[in-house]
Structures are given as C-alpha cells and as structure tokens.
Amino acid sequence: MKSIPRYDEWKTTPPEQEPATYCDCCGCELYEGDYLYTIDGESLCEDCVNEEYRRTI
Question: Which of 7, 9, 49, 50 is deepest in the core (most CB within 10 A)?
C-alpha cells in the first residue's frame, strides 16, 4: 500500500479552532465551551471576574 505524505498527521491532528470572542478586560481568547460572563455590558473571562468581582468576607 502506498503511503500518502502527511495523511496520518492530518487525520490525527484536530483542526485549529478560531476564538468565539475575546475578553473585554484582558483580551484573552474565549472558545466554544469556555465560560463567558456578561457584566455591565462587558464580556469577561473567568479570571477577570474573579479578580474584579470576587471578594472574601
């Protein structure tokens, strides 16, 4: 059987995902399945929400 160059690499490598959106605060890429928080009209990642809004009592 004749091998096709780079076929196995193509078959086993997942396609590159494009970001669905970006965090308005830090600019990090958010993909499908990531958590997105919308607060006061801003789209924020989980890290920014924790830094800006989470408080310890």
Answer: 49
**Which of 47, 14, 12, 15 is CA-nearest to residue 30?**
47
Residue type, 51: E
* Distance (Å, whole) CA 54 – CA 49: 7
41 sits in the region (left: phi over 0; alpha: psi -120 to 50; else beta) called: left
Where do the structural domains in the chain lie, given as residue ranges?
Answer: 18-53
pTM summary value: 0.66
CB atoms within 10 A of CB 13: 9
